User: Fold these one by one.
Assistant:
Number 1:
Amino acid sequence: MVDQSALWAGTDEGGGIATYIRVMQQTPLWAQWNIRHIVTHRDGSVAAKIWAFARGGALFIFELLRSRPNVVHLHSASDTSFIRKGILLWASWFASVPVVMHIHGANFDEYYAKSSPMVQAVIRATLFRANAVVALGESRAASLRNIAPTTRISVIPNAVRPVRRRVQPGLGKPVHVVFLGRIGERKGTFRLLDAWAELAVDPDFGAGKSAILTLAGDGEVEQAMHRVGQLNLTDSVEVRGWLSEDEVGHLLDNAQVLVLPSRNEGQPMAVLEAMARGLCVVSSGVGGLPEMIGGGCGVIVPPYDIEAIASALRLVVHDHELRARYGAAAYTRAVSQFDVDTVWRQLDALYREVASNRVESVSK
């Protein structure tokens, strides 16, 4: 295909979608398809978000009409994110440009279920108009098929570049446990702190002797700091704010366990980045997480069971061989299923398919 091009719409700020976009920018897909990424969302006040979409949406329409890309690729979560991308999808459809709608959101099925019948009809119609809808895993694909049975669903996972296997701590050094993501109830941050408080009363575990915990991310950072003080965990817990990409890499390079007791998830990039380094992952069994770490590639816990979270952490902290085995299995799965060199080729094949369908329909 000559002079092929793709137009993307998404965000460039913190979160899984932005991380995914940055990963894909470093692949041959970006140059081969001359991808132009239009930012249509930024964090901030309601006014700032409206302005970001108004500016980004106008630029998107301009590029859509000016360059006539072969493919439009829209990166969407749920709620207002889907509304924004839905507007761009319909604009692309009217311009007769094929659309790939990429659903990253962890709670898209919940968003659909709580919507009114009229909004549900619009959601179904919007998904139907996409030439392809990308789901991050089989469980997400099943949910989308329940919502829009006639929509073409393609399962393409999130992507990561495997780094190396994690080196375990030396004798007498504490295991470094990391929580990475938006700090708050949805990700299970405060349940994790309650579980850690149960571990801290153990003389062999507390005061940073066996393990230390680092919480990193945006969200309810001050509340987490306050909770750490309330629980007397300052000797073994550090709370940090949002970290840059390099800082995240450095944090994970010096950790052995990633813990994420979320109540819902899609296919979190934090878990993939941990797997790509051979960390042992402890997470809840929600969304796409069982597909990621099930079958011996991590420890799955009930998201609301503080005792279970504490028991799982106690197990992987004290059992060196088990922790190393889970980490090695996670690394192997990251290489075999989530390697960016495989994923970008899947996107390339999808682009070629939807673009060729457009050419065939025009020629008819």
Number 2:
Amino acid sequence: MDMYLVGGAVRDKLLGLPVKERDWVVIGATPEDMLAEGFRPVGKDFPVFLHPQTHEEYALARTERKTGPGYTGFEFHASPDVTLEEDLIRRDLTINAMAEDANGSLIDPYNGQEDLQNGVLRHVSPAFTEDPVRILRVARFAARFARWGFHVAHDTNKLMRTMVDSGEVDALVPERVWAELEKALGEEHPARFFEVLRGCGALTRLFPEIDALFPDEKTEPHVRMTKIAQTTPVHALHALEQSVHISDDTTVRFAALALNIGKGIFTDSDWPKMIDPEPAVDAIKAMCERIAIPKAYKELAIIAARHHNNCHCAGSLSADEKLDILEAADAFHRSERLNKLVAACMADTRGRVGHEKDAYPSAKILMQAFHKAKAINMTDINMSALKGKDIAREVRRLRIEAISAGE
């Protein structure tokens, strides 16, 4: 049997990036051969084994055939006679279809190294259209390698658009959409993920709430839109980009993006009125439910949508309004969530073009209010004389008093 390092490990090695995971493909072997060498089987759909010492994954070379819609509609064939080239051709992109042999020599039958050098995300074969997850993966790789200017090949984008038009993208299950979105949020330039999806028409099918932020190209040219309408698409994605410089927490990055959804298009007569946050909250809830987004992401995004405007002007808020924000974030039980809320709001402010390096005084103001309110002496409350909600009201009164002190 012959073993080859494949996929992301080879790609990242050529890019000079640290290799985090190493995957291997085995040519000319049977499951029995692998067991005889001490490998432990873990694959359910096709033979994958863990190395007895390194615990890295070794998969038998295989081919696949489309049998139904979606990413699960495949029939796999693993056999000792499957060649390395046949195994590599089933992969998504040329940059992921390279291998390295035991001597460190590169095997590159589909010109992945050339595409890597040219910054091109290109499909390996027409079979690319058989798996809708590949649309999300292309968008995610665009986000990961944006600093090198990687772009989607024209023919690959054309195939992606065909998959959208044919309805193949609609076969994606929520869990896979979320899995790729979460990974994209952790990339260096997460906004590229959404830009690529919009470029192939998938954004409106997978994330209609985000796609709705972009002004309708069919809008009558004489209809004047305010600064909000003109910049919300740029702002929403720019805020997401700014969040990368503020926090590596993906819940913060999601909140920085999501607090902008549901705002719609506003006319000049709407400006500068306070925007009702509830449409954004409704849109966030709908998106989270449809894609099965975890509760922690949903809760922080909703808090940010409802309170970011007040957070931005914390210096002009009354003590009780500051306390409203602290209580909404459940800061007295989960102080880390207040930090995340402030981080998301800071990203929102810096998401305005030209304000990327602005200070965010609200952060200090809200944290000072929190520490003052948290420091109240609970022994000052006569618990024996109060019952039920009266206790909560008294705690709130003392906290407002503490926040007000020194202002």
